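Sample entry (466 residues):
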Amino acid sequence: MKTPRSAAIYARISSDQSGEGLGVTRQLEDCRELAANHGWTVGDEYVDNDISAYKGKPRPQYQRMLDDLAEGYRDAVIVYNMDRLTRQPMELEQFSRLCEQAGVTQVKSVTADIDLGNDDGLFMARILAAIASKESGRKSERLQRKARQLAEQGLPNGGHHRPFGYEQDRMTVNEAEAEVLRQAVGRFLAGESSRSICVWLNNEGVQTTAGGPWQTVTLNAIFKSGRIAGLREHKGVVVADAQWPGIITPAQRQQILGHFETKKRTNTRAPRRYVLSGLLRCGKCGNKLFSSIRVDTRRYVCLAGPDHGGCGRLTIVASPVEEFICAAVLMRLDTPEMADALTGRRAVDERQSSLLETLEADRSQMQELSEMWAAKDISSVEWKAARDPIEARIRSTERQLAQASSSSALDGLIGTGEQLMTAWSMLNLDRQAAIIKAVLDYATILPGTLGARTMDPARIQPVWQL
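Predicted structure, serialized as tokens:
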């Protein structure tokens, strides 16, 4: 048989817990030795580390090897074992067809020689692929059962990177990171956006456990996770108390979930551009005012037209009205009425946990009802009769969640309005807006006097939440 001019070595490991690629290194060493024993020249090595050949995930280096085989750059293949090449019978057929078209007949493994140039060799390869596929399926089932068992026992799972806030054992709290996480949670509950918190973390030089910068999707996943509250989840559902200590309380996590639910319900968008965005109303038509720059002055204006629906006949310079309302909010923090109102608001906040549980139960019941209708266990009339009251409860609960805005934005601020005034400019826009929104429902701007050069405070009619 003709000696290959340029052989390809392919190595793959599907689970590299250490991240050091030791399994791949051992495969490569044995494959190089096999090539040397046969007098083959190795043209290139193709390595897919920590990628499964059973789950159908893309394997970049495997695809590169196929391209090189098809182009004639490689005329033989060496693998440690056939299951390193593929565990899917269909993929083996595709590989065999490509080798036949490219004239590649020599495929060797450290554990067994496979000659794809004859029927016996191909038959043996198919048997090995079928066995590997079956074993992968059994292994997957065993791993799923093990994962469920670990979850129900409150034990941690694996993964490439340790969770932020915990040491490598996934059980011991990393106090430095935990304190950062508590601050981030506090800022989020105070109304600051995830994006703003990510900017803060990155500016402070705090990295993720992967060593990269923070992104909102990463931060939100941590905020929502049961792990940081000492809860063990399995497939997104809390199944047990964790055997590691929580960094925040379960009540704080419920409050976080309530914030996300409210944002989802109200379609709140971030980042906020101006401190009073969405909080001002036109005194002529009641429409919201929008910030707009005219020449060199920023104003809040009532916009006409189909996209805004206002009268277009009211405007006010932005800076004076923002300064006035900010000062009014801070003054209100020092009033006895504020402390009394906050007590009532916190009672509402304490209901968020039970509201979320009620909402989840009703949504689960709605899903179960839909599955019963799909399976024809109930008729359309029965489905509608059962659906309507559940939908009504869901709408009611969602409204209550949307109204139950947290008082966390005001934690520690009642009675400190005068001191806060001096530090107001140091707060970022999200924090300022959160404090104002927790106190102010909206403010109506009345029409001004024609030709007036200063703002008349009487034009501003605030409606307080607290």
